[in-house]
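Action item from last meeting closed. Structure (290 res):
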């Protein structure tokens, strides 16, 4: 059964339904409250939590459980379906030639994710390259080069250049023989205009097949504005959630997915290049509710 890894509080509430074949309105209220608590503490946006819980409540009250289905399983199924409906499947990434652009604020984990994703594509038999265009953060070039080395993938950057757009252009030319170009960009501490201008120009040169927004799992309610701004400027096709090895549950990613009408591509689960997983809804939903 999906969702068997639930948090103790929600599981306790659901366990009270064991043996019941019908749910009372009170039962449903109690479950929905528990789910709201879990989602809010996982940093899911308040209005999304309300929308989800309204849908769950409505369906649990109106739909008839299929004959022989215990009430507990019936309501769990609804919760799961509603969350899957919102989160969706992982962002489609065909195993073929492509260019991926990474966007996000400084410290979100872009440089690390670029190397991780390159490593991931290399395990699928493709030849990837990381192109580092971050001329803003001191040390970004060295870090990217070192990580690309650890991932055993090709790398292009220019520590002497201050022109990220030119680096992107040259990077694509210099690595024209590879299959997958992963273009890392500079972040800033906040969504300043020059950051947005810069990434728009890079996007114009790179013409990515897929643009991914990299978000720290701890982002919380700030996800909405970031997602909106990056989506307006370059169009976001998917989200990468990093630092899921920490305590944060990554509920902000749901806001970003909802805001950009996209999906989740990858999860980052550590500092090493191999610490990356392709997104799959089940584990993530269990974690959100846990
Ligand atoms: P950027 O400024 O967006 O390029 O962010 P970096 O890639 O430099 O990452 C910022 C910090 O977060 C670095 O210390 C990384 O090692 C760390 N980091 C990135 N992804 C993860 C992750 O999935 N788990 C953990 N624990 N740390 C991460």
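Sequence:
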């Amino acid at each position: 059964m999906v969702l068997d890894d639930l948090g103790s509080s929600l599981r306790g509430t659901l366990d009270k339904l064991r043996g019941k074949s019908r749910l009372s309105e009170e039962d449903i209220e109690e479950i929905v409250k528990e789910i709201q608590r879990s989602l809010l503490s996982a940093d899911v946006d308040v209005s999304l939590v309300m929308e989800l819980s309204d849908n769950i409540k409505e369906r649990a009250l109106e739909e008839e459980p299929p004959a022989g289905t215990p009430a507990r399983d019936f309501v769990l199924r609804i919760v799961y379906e509603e969350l899957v409906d919102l989160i969706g499947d992982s962002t489609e990434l065909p195993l073929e030639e492509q260019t991926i652009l990474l966007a996000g604020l400084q410290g979100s984990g872009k440089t690390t994710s670029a190397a991780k994703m390159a490593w991931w594509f290399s395990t699928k038999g493709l030849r990837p390259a990381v192109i580092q265009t971050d001329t803003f953060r001191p040390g970004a070039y060295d870090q990217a080069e070192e990580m690309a080395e650890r991932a055993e993938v090709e790398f292009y950057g220019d520590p002497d250049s201050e022109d990220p757009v030119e680096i992107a252009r040259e990077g694509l030319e210099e690595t024209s023989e590879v299959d997958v170009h992963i273009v890392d960009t500079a972040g800033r501490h906040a969504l300043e205009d020059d950051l947005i201008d810069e990434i728009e120009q890079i996007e114009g040169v790179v013409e990515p097949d897929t643009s991914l927004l990299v978000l720290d799992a701890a982002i919380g309610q700030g996800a909405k504005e970031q997602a909106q701004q990056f989506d307006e400027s370059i169009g976001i096709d998917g989200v990468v959630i990093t630092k899921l090895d920490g305590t944060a549950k990554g509920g902000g990613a749901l806001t970003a997915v909802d805001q950009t009408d996209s999906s989740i591509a990858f999860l980052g689960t550590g500092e090493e290049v191999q610490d990356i997983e392709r997104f799959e809804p089940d584990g993530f939903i269990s974690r959100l509710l846990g």
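Note appended to the action item: Residues 1 and 73 are 9 Å apart (CA to CA).
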